């Protein structure tokens, strides 16, 4: 069945003529010229989805945070560091975009101030508060924009209660589907080669995996083409 | 002259029978299971020094934070994530250590609390304080320990006023030399293949580079052998 799905995807090119924009990887939020806040996203899931979308015939733009992956062939890559840069790049690429898939692990918060010089420990005490401000919600802003793509997909990296968080995210962010995965499991998710996901829409749930991230990417692109068809 | 220095280093094996411990790379300080504080250290300088020390005949232990580098051959590598793990690994490897070189960009601060579940944005406001506590000073604790190696070298990544900061660090941390470099320059230092350093001891200053990190590593190991001889 896996093979059928994959073969159908790449022989019939169901996304031919479609523009797909994908965000991937972590963001880095600068504290000063050398220090930053980040997270454990490897970018592998997003890069695999970009590759799958390209094989399915789509014109693909990959907006990528700092990762150590080779960019897939035939894909436009826009490299960014911070959440604010990713936000701008996302909105600059919405024109005639049909599908937007937010796989990036965007930092929810950034340091309120970025120091231009490296902060010296001498200037600080033993305890220190790092004031943070909330970053804009990229996927929600895309889903609510005037240039909203037909299909907007969010990812949810959770450590508990996947389905409830996915449903809440679906509504709050006004997206068409949420792909939830459990990042507390060491066998799947962040940094791993494999993943297990729960595909949640308004009226469906589908569990897929554990499978390689390539297979999970095919499942997601297959689900997206089904969604575009209806 | 470069070649002379390098050739002398590797033909006469001046560090034969010596144990050298080197820290390298950044540390990562966990905020919760997915988020962390870190910095832009690539680990290249430390790995190059480890390789140079090994070629000079030393028995080398490399205590490495998370980097994407191949460990050099014939070197014992101890992988760590946080500053506290690096501190423990450093002290566990001091026995019969002759030279300790701290190239790691150790996080000065870590989050006061590490959440066991991923923190949800819903539970927070638009503004947030991340309370931090100071990490132990690894290089100073090594230099002041009962098992102090004969030669303790600190690195200083600065963005201004290199020599003054280096001198202050030399005294405060009780080390034998400080290798200072300017990380605000994009042509050298963090992530770059090249580096320019200022070697500062109680009674000498020596500027070296810009050169490849391999050449800078040879310069440092050469300076260390000179220091052990006197």
Describe the structure.
Two copies of one chain form a homodimer. The first copy, chain A, is an alpha/beta fold and 230 residues long. Chain A has one domain (2-109, 128-229): Rossmann fold (3-Layer(aba) Sandwich). Chain A contains six helices and twelve strands. Chain A has helices at residues 2-11, 44-55, 83-92, 138-143, 162-173, 213-229; strands at 19-24, 29-30, 35-39, 59-64, 76-79, 99-102, 109-111, 127-134, 151-158, 177-182, 194-201, 204-212. An eight-stranded mixed β-sheet of chain A has the order 5-4-1-6-9-10-11-12, with helices on both faces. In chain A, β2 and β3 (35-39) form a beta hairpin. In chain A, α1 packs across α6 and α2 (44-55) crosses α6. The longest helix of chain A has 17 residues, at 213-229. The radius of gyration of chain A is 18 Å and the shape is globular. The two termini of chain A are 22 Å apart. Chains A and B meet through β3 and β8 of A and β3 and β8 of B.
């Amino acid at each position: 069945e896996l093979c059928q799905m994959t073969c159908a995807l790449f022989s019939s090119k169901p996304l031919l003529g479609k523009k797909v924009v994908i965000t991937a990887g972590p963001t880095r939020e600068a504290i000063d010229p050398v220090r930053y806040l980040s997270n454990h996203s490897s970018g592998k899931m997003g890069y695999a989805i970009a590759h799958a979308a390209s094989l399915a015939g789509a014109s693909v733009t990959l907006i990528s945070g700092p990762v150590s992956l080779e960019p897939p062939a035939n894909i436009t890559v826009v490299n960014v560091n911070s959440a604010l840069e990713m936000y701008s790049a996302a909105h600059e690429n919405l024109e005639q975009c049909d599908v937007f898939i937010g796989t990036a692990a965007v930092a929810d918060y950034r340091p309120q101030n970025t120091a231009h010089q490296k902060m010296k420990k001498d200037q600080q005490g033993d305890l220190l508060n790092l004031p943070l401000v909330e970053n804009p919600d990229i996927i929600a802003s895309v889903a609510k924009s005037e240039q909203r793509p037909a299909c907007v997909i969010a990812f949810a990296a959770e450590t508990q209660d996947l389905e409830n968080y996915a449903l809440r995210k679906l509504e709050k962010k006004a997206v068409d589907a949420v792909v939830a995965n459990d990042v507390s499991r060491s066998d799947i998710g962040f940094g791993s080669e494999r993943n297990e996901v729960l595909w949640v829409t308004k009226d469906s749930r589908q569990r897929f995996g554990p499978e390689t991230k390539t297979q999970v990417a095919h499942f997601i692109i297959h689900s997206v083409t089904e969604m575009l068809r209806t």
